[in-house]
Amino acid sequence: MSSPSSRLPALPLNPDDVVRQFARRGDLSEAQFLYAEIGARMNERLDYIRLQPTALLDAGCGAGTALPGLRTRYPEARYTGIDSCEPLLAHARKQHRPVGTARLRQSVLGLVGRAAEGPSFQRADLAATGLPPESVELVWSNLALHWHAEPHSVLAEWRRVLRVGGLAMFSCLGPGTLRELRAALVTAGLETRTPAFVDMHDFGDLLVENGFADPVMDQETLTLTYQDPMRLLADVRALGGNPARGRRAGLVGRSWRDRLCAALDGQRDDQGLIRLSMEVAYGHAWRAASHRTVAGETRLSVSAIGKSGRI
Fold first, then answer.
1. How many CA atoms lie within 13 A of 12 on its CB side?
2. Residue 211 to residues 13, 157, 168, 216, 281, Cα–Cα distance (Å)
3. How far is CA 307 from the centre of its chain?
C-alpha cells in the first residue's frame, strides 16, 4: 500500500519565485488583512492546549508579525523565526530588535536566560531549519506551508526539531482558494498555471505518517468581496502572487489584464460585488515518541526512553 507522501508529488512551485515574490512585498503589511486574522484565530486555539514551551519555532515567520502574540502568551520561551526570504527577515530584525528600554524591561520583568536573549530570525528552508534535534516544544506556522513544494518534508523536519510531546500548529491555504480567479482565467481564455494547494485530509495523513499523534484538522472558507477587480488582483499579489511552475512568463500586457478584469466583472453578484474564496485549513498534532517508517520497523526517540504518556 502506498504511503500518503508517495501519493503526494512535489507541488509545482518554484522556490526561487516564492522568495522573489515575497521579497517585493515590503513588510507584508498589505497582506495582514488575512495573515493577522488567521494568526489571531490560531492563537485562540492555544487557549485549549496545555503547553508551556521553553523554546518555539515560528516556521515561515515573514516579518515577525506573530512574535508579539506568541511572546505575550509564552513570555519566557526562546523564539526562533525562520524564513527563506532575507528581505522579510531584515524587516523582522529591525522591528523586533530589543534595545534600550526594551532590554531594561526584560530585566525588570525577570525575563532572564533564554528569553532575555531576544528573538532570533534566521534564513532557512522550512524543510531544513538548521535547528538541533528535539530542541523546541512548539512549532507555529501561519499561512506558510502551502508555499513549500514538499510539505511532507517540512512535516518530517518539524518532527525532528520537536521534543516528544511537543506541538506543531499550522494554517495553510486549501484547494478551494482562488477558485473564482481560476474560473475567470478560463473564461478569458488566458493560459497560465496557478498554485496547487493540498487538501486538509491529506495533511492529516501526512502528519501520522511523519510521526505525529492525535492530528486535528479543520477548515473554513472565507469570502472576500470587491467592487474593483484590480483591487482583487492587488490583494492576490500581496498574499504571495503566483510562483507556480509553468505560469505565464514575463509581465502581462494591458490586453491580458483587461481580459482578466472583464472576466472578473462578469462574476458580479446581485449586489454588484466580485467574490474571492480563501479556503483555510488549520491543523495541530503532537510529536509522538515512536515513528513507524516501514513495515516491521519502529523508531523510538532517545528522549522518550523511560517516559510514558504525553508531556
1. 10
2. 25, 11, 11, 14, 20
3. 32
- The domain total for the chain is 1
Q: Output the CA angle 74-66-12, nearest 5 degrees.
A: 130
Rounded Cα distance between 298 and 198, Å, is 27
- Strands 297-300, 78-83: parallel, antiparallel or unpaired by DSSP? unpaired
Q: Specify the CATH number for the domain of residue 107.
A: 3.40.50.150
Concatenated DSSP letters of 62-107:
TTTTTHHHHHHHSTTSEEEEEES-HHHHHHHHHHT---THHHHHHH
In a domain, 228, yes or no: no
Q: Is the pLDDT of residue 304 over 90?
A: no
Phi, psi of 38 (to 5 degrees): -70, -40
pLDDT of 307 > 80? The answer is no
Residue 28 has pLDDT above 60, yes or no: yes
Residue 191's pLDDT band, with cuts at 50, 70 and 90, is confident
Q: Which helix (H) or strand (E) holds 45?
A: helix 32-45
Report the alpha-carbon distance of residue 169 to residue 311 in Å, rounded. 16
In a domain, 268, yes or no: no
- pLDDT at 233 (0 to 100): 95
Least reliable range by pLDDT among 172-176, 236-240, 242-246, 262-266: 242-246
CA 258 centroid distance within chain: 32
Residue 150 inside a domain? The answer is yes
Q: Determine, yes or no, domain membership for 288.
A: yes
* 3-class state of residue 112 by DSSP: coil
Full domain range(s) for residue 171: 7-177+195-221+280-301
